[in-house]
Structures are given as structure tokens and as C-alpha cells.
Amino acid sequence: MDVFQKISLLNFVIIFTFFIARNDGRRRRNENVKRVENFRQKEKDVLDTILGSKNARGHTYDARIRPQSFDPFTNETDPSSPTFVNVNIYLRTINDINDYKMEFAIQITFRQRWNDPRLRFDDQLGRMKYLTMTDPRKVWMPDTFFRNEKSGHFHNILVNNVYIRIFPNGDVLYSIRISLTLSCPMNLKLYPMDRQTCALKIASYGYTTDDITYLWDAADPVQLAQNLNLPRFNIEKYSSSYCNVKTNTGEYSCLSVDLVFKRQFSYYLITIYVPGCMLVIVSWVNFWLDPKAVPARVALGVTTLLTMSTQTASINSALPPVAYTKAIDVWQGVCVGFVFSALMEYALVNYALRGKVKRKRKLSEAAAEIENQVRMMDETMLLCNGNGQNGKSKNSPKSNINADHIVLYNGTVGNGMRGGSRKNSDHEQQFNLNNGGNILMNPLLEDPAYLNWLEKQDKKRSRRCQMPQDRSKRIDVVSRYLFPLVFAIFNLAYWCTYLTQARREAETLSLIGQNGKSSAG
């Protein structure tokens, strides 16, 4: 054979081998498909057998009848024993925690597992691990409900998010995705430094503990999704516990998941406490303004007061009306009180200023009256002096003085005697009157006691004139130090009191959580 023939024969062998291998692969694939189809047919046959009118044991399966407890050691059922339902929950999301309605919304994957001896089947030498169903109406289901549920719904996009797995030993696993809105009674005394414990309570509606008993899975009964974040809360801890309920119709099995939410205080510190402090401090600017600047001081006081009132109304609108006092109520009430007190302080200052004006007017009128009296006395002295020296007639109306002696104390003005002769060698001057009487002028300006009395009177008058202005300024000066000092003392007492109470509440909840986990384990 030449080389060409050898190459041709080799190609023929290769092509023939390829066709044989291809046909063999097709045959094997067809056999595998038939085998798979036969296996799926066997699963269908098994389901028809265990759920059909008569199973392999000759019994009719009725989904309305509760399964009897099965003892794997004796391989017998116990009619008097309850059905044990093992529960585990996967917490997917926490959508909202509503303080006003006292509720929270969650989305969970809820799983229940129980044993139904009527659903046992042959596992085909381990090849049939479990059977999957999507119609839970074909098997018996526990009458589970959520005790504190307000509303809820199933998810059916794109298909119903539910499945049932039936295992060869008769175990049934039921899993479904549910969104729930649950009630959560809250104690807001420490708001916004509080912690709230919200529960998810699972119970049987019609079966008592003699019929159904709920149990938490021994390993990890509650799971939380990773990166589970809330806008205003943190999940501080969670625990599982039992909460069996006794009523007039019997005792019912109950499970509880307790979620402890810690409120994020930084949000409230930035949006409530810091602005409140700033408004109170702004109201103190009034103490440095001129008391006569009425529009500026009144506008500043009223603006800060209205702003504090608006902030208080906004906070209360997001909270339920409760009968007790919350921590935020104490803060807002005291801040409003400080702003209102600053406004009232200016009312007191203004009153003091108006009192000064009135006193000034009265003193001016009194000084004018004294000047008039002194002027009249000077004219009288001049008249008397003129009668004594020039000898005017007795019938002159200005010389008709019916007194033996007239002593003039010209000290009310403090300027000495005005008019007439000021020469008094013997400290007295005599003027002859037409009626024979004498007017004795006794100037007291040279008497030390009289001069001291005049000086004291002048000081009293000046003090009365300046006292109102000093009083208004004194009120502002005292307020500049008194208001910040009292507000600082209030802050110290407020934060020490409520932070201590919040720490005690955290310790109490920690103890409750430990007890709950021990009872669930």
C-alpha cells in the first residue's frame, strides 16, 4: 500500500469511529431522558398514591384530619399525643416602625415542620429525597395565625411564594413568604432615648395544646438578613420564647419573637435638641439690646417663642396622645418656658422704664411749684423791703401783712435768699411795717445742720431720678447671668436623670432577653 491509500484508510476509520460514538451518545441521552421521565413519573405516582383516594396501606388521606404523633422507636402512632410543629423564621426586612400608630411592618419567610405518618413513602434507595408541592390545600396544615397581626398579605409575583416538601419519613416542610403589619405597644416615657420591644407572636387558632404544640427549632430558630438597616432604629437584640395562652376554651400553644429596637439618638439630637438650645440662646440676645429698642426686642422674643411652639407642635404630631409625660415633653416645655420668660423679662424692663418717665414728670412739676413759691417769697420780701424804706401808704394791698414776726427759711431751693438786702451782721434783718409789726429774716444758709439737711435732700432727689434707669439696667444684667446658669443646671439634671433611666431600662431588657433565650433553648 502506498502512502495515499494508508491516509485514506485512516480517515475512513476516524469517520466511522466518530459516527459510532455519536450514535452511542444519542442513545445514552435518550435513555437518560427516559430514565428521568420515568423518575418524574414515579414522583407523580408516589404523590398520587399518598394523596389519592386510597394509599398503599388501603387508607384514604383526608387533609381535614390532624395527623397522629408517630414514635420512630416503636414505629407506631399515638392518638393521645399532640402534633409537634417545629417553627423557624427568617426575617427579611423591617419596613417601618410607626410611633404614632404603635405598629411595625416586617417581611418574613415563615417555615413550619411537622410529621404526618400518612405521607410516608419509599425513597427509591435514596434517589427520592423529597417531593415538592405548591398547593398546600392537599395536605393537612396547622391553623397557625399571628396573634398581634393588624394586616398582612402573601406574595404571588411571579408565582405564589410558597412550597411544601414531603420527606420519605412523613415529615412535611411548609415555607411561605409573608408581609405583616403587627401591633407593638410602646412606652414612650424616655422618648427619644427609649428602647422598644416589639413581638411577633405565633399561635394555634383552634387546636389546644392537647392537639398541637409549637416548638422552636433547636438550631437557630430566628435568622436575620444581612445588612438589615432601619432609618431611625437599631436592632439591639432579639430572642425567642414561649407565650402559651389560657382562655375559657383551653390552653393554646404560642411562640414569640422579641425584637428590641434602640432608637438612634443622633437623629433627634441634631433635629430637636440642638435647635432648641440655639433658640433659647437666641432669646437671650434681648438682654444685650437697648431697653428703648422696643420693636427689636419684642420681635425677637415673639419670633423665638413662635418658632419653639411650631417645633413642639411638629414633634407632638408624630407621637400618639398619651397620658404620661415624655422626656421630649419636659425638654420642649422648659425651652418654651425659658423663651417666654425672656419675653416677660423685657415686659418688666419696660415697666421700670415707664416708671422712670412718670417719676421724672412728677419731679419736674414739683420743682416748678417750688420755683413759683420761691419767686412769690422773693417778691414778698422785696415788697416788704420797699414799704419799710420808702414809707408807702398803709392802704397799699402789697403791705397788708397781719403777723408780728415772719421767719423765712429759704432752703428749699438751696440757692440762698434772693432779692432785698443780703446784709445780716446780727444774723437777722428787721423791716418796719406800716402796721407797727416786724418781719424777722433769719437766713439759715450759714447753719451747718441746715446745710447737711439740704445736701441729703439733693442726694435723695438725684437718687429718685436715677433709680428707675438703674433698675431696668440691673434687671438686664442679672438676667444675662441668671438665665444661662439656670438653663445649665436644668441640662445637667435632665441628662443625668434620663440617661440613667435609659441605662437601667437597657439592663432590664438584657435580663429579659437572657431569660427568653434560655426558655426557648
Care to describe what's here?
- The protein has 521 residues and is α+β, with helices and mostly antiparallel strands.
- It has five helices and 18 strands.
- It has helices at 3-51, 265-283, 294-317, 327-390, 448-520, and strands at 69-71, 76-78, 83-98, 103-115, 131-133, 144-146, 149-154, 162-166, 171-183, 195-204, 212-216, 222-224, 233-242, 245-247, 250-252, 254-263, 429-432, 438-441.
- Helix 2 runs antiparallel to helix 3 and helix 4 packs antiparallel against helix 5 (448-520).
- The protein is elongated.
Quick rundown:
The protein is an alpha+beta fold and 521 residues long.
Q: How is this fold's topology laid out?
A:
Blueprint: H1 3-51, E1 69-71, E2 76-78, E3 83-98, E4 103-115, E5 131-133, E6 144-146, E7 149-154, E8 162-166, E9 171-183, E10 195-204, E11 212-216, E12 222-224, E13 233-242, E14 245-247, E15 250-252, E16 254-263, H2 265-283, H3 294-317, H4 327-390, E17 429-432, E18 438-441, H5 448-520
Low-confidence segments, ≥5 residues, pLDDT <50? Answer: 388-445, 515-521
Share of residues in helices:
40-55%
User: How would you sum up the global shape?
Assistant: elongated
Q: Beta-sheet strand percentage?
A: 15-25%
Could you tell me how far the N terminus lies from the C terminus, measured between alpha carbons in angstroms? 85 Å
Number of strands: 18
- How many individual helices? 5
Question: What profile does the largest beta sheet have?
Answer: 8 strands, mixed
Q: Helix and strand string, N-terminal first? A: HEEEEEEEEEEEEEEEEHHHEEH
Structural class based on helices, strands and sheet pairing: alpha+beta
Rg over alpha carbons: 52 Å
What is the typical, i.e. mean, pLDDT?
78
